[in-house]
Amino acid sequence: MAYPSVDAPYGLLPINLVGGQVYAGSTRQIPIATDSATAIFFGDVVLLHTDGTLRKDTGTDAATPVGVFMGCSYTDSTYGKTFRQYYPGGITASDINAYVVDDPDALFKVAVVSSGTTIGYVNRTAVGNNAVLTQNAGSTTTGNSKVAIDDTTGTTATFPVRIIDVIPDTHTTGNPGSYTEVVVKWNAGLHQYENATGV
User: Fold this and answer.
1) How many domains does the chain have?
2) What is the mean pLDDT of the chain?
3) Which of 2, 55, 159, 172 has CA 20 to 30 A from 36's CA?
4) Which residues, other chains included, contact 113 with Cβ-Cβ below 8 Å and sequence gap of 6+?
5) How far is the C-alpha of 91 from the C-alpha of 126, rounded, in Å?
6) Are residues 90 and 46 located together in one domain of the fold?
7) What is the band of 189 on the pLDDT scale with cuts at 50, 70, 90?
8) How far apart are the C-alpha atoms of 143 and 161, rounded to whole Å?
9) Based on the domain organization, do 109 and 47 belong to the same domain?
10) Residue 17 domain-assigned?
11) How many CB atoms lie within 10 A of CB 134?
């Protein structure tokens, strides 16, 4: 069966841990402040605010992530306990909890774009380089993020992610060829648990 073509970005999807460590898909529950206005989608990069609550990290060439958003739950006044693929913003509840992949060693699959949501590619030579995030509005239909990485990579230390591999199934042309998906990790010292200055 052929690998499906990548026609749009989908956020960051956790797939493994660095060095082949055991990955159990664990998440941490982090509260979202009641009435927090900004929507957060499945696969969005998130950060800890100074008040201890979770917010979307809107950084592109710099970011201070605590992890990636995987959904949320809260008590709805009409439907009771509610679980959602995304946080739509403006929810009034005292128990909004996000599920976050917060392991600093997590590896994520992500799409490459040339701009916005237009799928691009990188060559195998991009492995080991740093990349910037491309922030796009998520889908309220699927609840999924549309965050991606830009196809221009480099050695700038503040870029949020490091490309550590390509997804071979997205190989397009030539040898070593071009790839529309890559595997990334947080760049050294940028994750909030590893940042020496804290939140």
Assistant:
1) 2
2) 93
3) 159
4) 9, 119, 120, 134, 148, 149, 150, 151
5) 41
6) yes
7) confident
8) 23
9) no
10) no
11) 23
Average pLDDT, stretch 73-102? 96
As a whole number of angstroms, the distance between CA 100 and CA 56 comes to: 11
For residues 89-117, average pLDDT: 97
Judge whether 158 lies within some domain: yes
pLDDT band at 22 (very low <50, low <70, confident <90, very high): confident
C-alpha 174: how far from chain center: 29
Question: Tokens 């979307």 appear where?
Answer: 56
pLDDT tens, residue by residue, 156-185: 999 999 999 999 988 887 666 899 999 999
Phi and psi based region of residue 50 (left: phi greater than 0; alpha: psi -120 to 50; beta: remaining): alpha
Residue 3: inside a domain: no
Per-residue pLDDT at 198 exceeds 90: no
Q: Using 50, 70 and 90 to split pLDDT, how confident is the model at 1? A: very low
Give the structural domain span for 47: 22-101
Kind plus residue range of the DSSP H or E element containing 47: strand 45-48
